Structure to design on (216 residues):
């Protein structure tokens, strides 16, 4: 692979760090939502990456070993919704210890802004994370110096699945989120999306003996 193509592919792969399973603008309308209850009401939680997050574009993969976000289940009665999801603010998820499958290029991910996550009971249980406008930025250094911005013009809703358990898990599979890319020679300035895969384990930090649970 040439240096230009390598840099181009890596820029796309690094852009994957910005995503966590997006809902595209052309997605079909969701069916009428049922009731949702998230318990324990008022408890704080922590979502920690399980294993690694792989960010892939073409034959190039960026791997991040550390990712964390925290939040709080709404206090009652806000933890219940008779006809839709239950939403709460979360901290911007961090991504660190990231490496590239291409020698000589390093991705760095920064996050900011007001993030939130909503849970909708169903089969499967779904989780929608909202990335604020410009809330994720990836910068690459080495063979290519580029800046990749997620949700560049408007907040992006990104969808995953939730599984109750001990601990429960939050999974994002083949995620796609809108991005813009700026930079010099070798930067993928025509890129408009990136891909991400990861599994998070969620723990109740108010009472570690309990589990965050989503039900009707």
């Amino acid at each position: 692979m040439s240096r230009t193509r390598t840099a181009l592919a890596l820029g796309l792969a690094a852009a994957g760090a910005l995503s966590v399973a997006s809902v595209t603008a052309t997605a079909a309308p969701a069916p009428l939502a049922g009731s949702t209850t998230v318990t324990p009401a008022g408890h704080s939680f922590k979502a920690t990456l399980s294993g690694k997050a792989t960010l892939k574009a073409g034959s190039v993969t960026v791997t991040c070993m550390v990712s964390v976000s925290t939040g709080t289940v709404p206090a009652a009665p806000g933890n219940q919704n008779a006809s839709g999801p239950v939403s709460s603010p979360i901290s911007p998820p961090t991504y660190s210890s990231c490496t590239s499958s291409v020698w000589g290029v390093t991705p760095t991910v920064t996050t900011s802004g007001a993030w939130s996550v909503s849970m909708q009971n169903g089969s499967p249980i779904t989780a929608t994370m909202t990335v604020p406008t410009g809330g994720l930025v990836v910068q690459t250094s080495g063979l290519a110096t580029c800046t990749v911005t997620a949700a560049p013009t408007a907040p992006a809703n990104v969808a995953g699945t939730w599984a109750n358990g001990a601990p429960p898990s939050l999974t994002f599979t083949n995620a796609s989120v809108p991005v813009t890319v700026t930079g010099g020679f070798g930067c993928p300035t025509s890129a408009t999306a990136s891909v991400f895969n990861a599994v998070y384990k969620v723990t109740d930090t108010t009472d570690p003996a309990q589990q965050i649970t989503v039900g009707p």
